[in-house]
Amino acid sequence: MERAEEELHIARAKRDPNAFAPLYELHFAAIFRFIHRRAGDRELSADLTQQTFLKAMLALPRYEPKGYPFKAFLFRVALNELKMHWRKRKEVVIDMSYAEVRGLTEEMGLPEGDDGLRKLEVALGRLDEDRARLIELRYMDGMSFAELGQVLGIAEDAAKMRTHRVLATLRTYLSPRA
After folding, report:
1. Whose C-alpha in 13, 16, 133, 146 is 20 to 30 A from the C-alpha of 102?
2. CA distances from 26 to 44, 60, 163 (A)
């Protein structure tokens, strides 16, 4: 679906919640994967995905694109749902495979394969929840800095700065002296 067509669907759904279905169908798979990667449980992921779309539909009359894709709005709602869920459970889950973090392992200068992945897991485990989420969104979900800023509610430049700071922190955790 092209952006203009998506905007037309958004305008319709703002007037009539029954018109939300095409937006749901378009973005369901991406939002489900995003949530499932963090929740790890298929049933929980399905529940949180449904909550995400319900809250997005309810918030749609107040939605303003501000130059960002609708998907970024949905990711932000999904991230809030996940935070609320994990806040209640007092735990954080990061599910990662080598394919998902390849760009990050290369950027960190880590060896390919399980050894590099293990080192990265240890380093990521030392990050607080917000910084770990930033790395997840950027490298595992492949978000641009603009999308990252939209999801986190910060400016694009701030998203770049925070990412570079977290990467610097990861490098210190990965250095032999850390």
Report:
1. 146
2. 21, 16, 29
Structure tokens given for 81 = 């749902």
Give the phi and the psi of residue 88 in degrees, each rounded to 5: -65, -35
Domains and CATH numbers, the chain: 3-89 (1.10.1740.10), 98-174 (1.10.10.10)
Of 94, 84, 101, nearest in space to 34 by CA: 94
The pair of structure tokens assigned to 21 is: 């279905």
Could you read off the pLDDT of 34-51 as tens digits, one per residue? 898 888 789 999 999 999
| Closest by Cα among 160, 142, 75, 148 to 103 | 142
Cα–Cα nearest to 130, from 92, 78, 158, 74: 92
pTM of this structure: 0.61
Q: Once rounded to an integer, what is the mean pLDDT over residues 3-24?
A: 91
